Amino acid sequence: xxxxxxxxxxxxxxxxxxxxxxxxxxxxxxxxxxxxxxxxxxxxxxxxxxxxxxxxxxxxxxxxxxxxxxxxxxxxxxxxxxxxxxxxxxxxxxxxxxxxxxxxxxxxxxxxxxxxxxxxxxxxxxxxxxxxxxxxxxxxxxxxxxxxxxxxxxxxxxxxxxxxxxxxxxxxxxxxxxxxxxxxxxxxxxxxxxxxxxxxxxxxxxxxxxxxxxxxxxxxxxxxxxxxxxxxxxxxxxxxxxxxxxxxxxxxxxxxxxxxxxxxxxxxxxxxxxxxxxxxxxxxxxxxxxxxxxxxxxxxxxxxxxxxxxxxxxxxxxxxxxxxxxxxxxxxxxxxxxxxx
Length: 341
Fold this sequence. Notes:
Elements: H1 3-6, H2 21-28, H3 32-40, H4 47-60, H5 66-73, E1 78-83, H6 92-104, E2 108-113, H7 118-129, E3 134-138, H8 144-151, E4 156-159, E5 168-169, H9 174-186, E6 191-195, H10 202-217, E7 221-225, H11 232-237, H12 239-244, E8 249-252, H13 255-267, E9 277-282, E10 295-298, H14 301-317, E11 330-332
Parallel strand pairs: 1-2, 1-3, 3-4, 4-5, 6-7, 6-8, 8-9, 9-10
Antiparallel strand pairs: 10-11
Helix pairs in contact: 2-3, 2-4, 6-14, 9-10
């Protein structure tokens, strides 16, 4: 085959047409409605009949069309997951956990992002709701009223956010923050800072308020320092303000900010951790790779995704099920924190 032949477009007429429910019915000698019951609602026919129909469907390459299935059932078998920033690795395990539960329940998970834009998030969420059974918002930047309005249309779950009247799955930041502050206090740190995340982030506010309260309880002073973006670039850009605050340790809103701050400090000749100790949040992939390895407060991200997807399916099926998983954070002590004494 020549290169031009290999690159030639495949003509539509040459493609094999997809198998239909009528093809399966013809192959098994049953009615299309019987095929539909066997494939969409197993357990309603004799086991031998269902097996024969499924085997024929597999041999013919028949796949259930979720849009067609939605006509009689009102359900597409599709869930949507919407995050604020697809480039943030904190979402990798959340998506994987949600995908695991969706697959186990014969659901398709679709994925979208809002690029940290509330306007884009709202438009995307409204567009997704027309073609899915339920919506999963992660670290939403919408207002409470906007989220409540979306939840009034179709089942909706929020993660890393609490909204009155809307089901939510949220990690508990207190265990991880308390353990991190205990180590810093033991190491002689008394003046610390919090390098904050997006103003619209609900979790950013929770982390700051928890850090403030727990630091005061331990006799430590704490100051909040704004960042431009919750990225490595934002962490690097914040270094002058961190130095001006005259603190010995910094908590960053997430690991990306912490890693950016760490790298810029080293670039400027500021030793970490002997001059400045740094703690991140989330324990993303790669947090342990730099030198020094980043100490961080680990969030149960995979469990968060699994719990949210499970709860969303409960909402869709309107099942009366109590489901309140424990999702504590945990301090992971590595090399970016040192004893001042």
